[in-house]
Amino acid sequence: MVVGETLRQASMVLAHAEFGAPADTHFVMRDLTVEVNPSALLLADADEPVEFDVVCSEVRRRGRGLHSMRTTMEFRRAGRLVARGTGSTGCTSPGAYRRLRAGRLNAPDTPVPLLPGISPRTAGRTRADDVVLAPADRPGVWHLRVDTGHPVLFPRPNDHVPGMVLFEAARQAATAASGLHPFLPATMTAGFTRYAELHSPCRIETETLGEHPGEVTVRVSGRQDGEPVFTATLTAARPARVRSLS
Questions:
Q1: Class assignment of domain 1-100?
Q2: For position 104, what pLDDT does the model report?
Q3: Distance CA 230, CA 23 (A)
C-alpha cells in the first residue's frame, strides 16, 4: 500500500514541479496498478534505502495547463527491482472543481457518524482506530467506516473520502474475506469511477476469484447510492504450509 501512496504523491509533486500545475489544482487518481515483492520491502532492512525512477507519459494539456498524465515508477533496493507501479491522474482547476462538487463543498462542516468497526484482527490491523470497515448484513460485505478525525487517513478537511482510505478499505476487506493474516498484496489493480461521499453509506463487497496453490485473489468493490465507486483486485501469497515430522 505504501507503493501506491508513494505513486499518488509523486504524481502530484511532478504535476506541480515539472508540468506547471498551479498549487490549488485538485487531483483525482483514475486507475492504479502495483506489483510488489513484499519480502524485499521489510523494515528490518531499513539500512538499505529504497530508490525509485519515475517516467511521466500520456501527458495531456488543456490550454497551457495540465489535464492528465500517467506516472510509472520502478522501485529498487540495493540495485534490485522490488516493486513497480503505474497510475493515471486527472487535474481539475478550482473553478471546475467547484462546479463539479456543487452542493458538496460544505461536507466537512457536517459531522460524520463514526460506525463501530469490525475487530482489528479481522481487518489485519493492531489498533481499532485504524479499522475502516464496519459490519454489514451478510458475510463478505461491509460498510465503509469514515473517521474524519484520523490523523493519517484524513490529514486535512476534505469534501469526499480520500483515495488512500479506499485503498486501505480494499486491503482490509481482502484480509477479512480471505482470512489471510497478514494479507500482503503482491499485485493490486484499482479503478475509480466517482467520488466517495462522506455522508452516504458506502458498501464494500468482496468476491474471492481463485485460490491457486500458494496465492489467493480477491476482488473488492465499493458502491454508494446504487452506483459503483471503485473496484480493486488484490493477490497475495499464502504462507507455505509447515509439514509435520511426526
A1: alpha beta
A2: 80
A3: 27
